């Protein structure tokens, strides 16, 4: 009876060692798979952030272009205003000739 128990304990210990060694063999693979998943998640996040950055840069460029267009329109309006003011001053000056003709 003791011999049977000894054989059983020995077999159980051998099985535990075998399972333990399998567990130890699988552990690096498990960690490698986990790290691969983490890398994939990080890669996806980098791609998402790069996409957001690209969108922001595009919007920034569009705003800059619109600002430049508005600056040109403002410069043209200011130049037109100066021309009208100069014309207005010329029209407001008294005429030295005695003709009754219009300045238009």
Provide a brief overview of the structure.
With 104 residues, this protein is mainly α. The chain has one helix at residues 2-92.
Topology:
Layout: H1 2-92
Report what the structure shows.
By secondary structure, this protein is an all-alpha fold. 88% of the residues lie in helices and 0% in strands. The chain contains 1 helix and no strands. The radius of gyration is 44 Å and the shape is rod-shaped. The termini are far apart.
Order of helices and strands: H
Assign an overall shape.
rod-shaped
Question: What's the Cα radius of gyration?
Answer: 44 Å
DSSP strand content: under 5%
Question: Uncertain regions: pLDDT < 50 for 5+ in a row?
Answer: none
Q: Kindly report how far apart the N and C termini lie.
A: 132 Å
Task: Tell me, rounded to a whole number, the average pLDDT.
Answer: 81
Sheet with the most strands, sense and barrel status: none
Count of runs of 4 or more consecutive helical residues: 1
Please bin the fraction of helical residues: over 70%
- Structure classification: mainly alpha
Secondary structure: number of strands: 0
Features:
104 residues; mainly alpha; rod-shaped
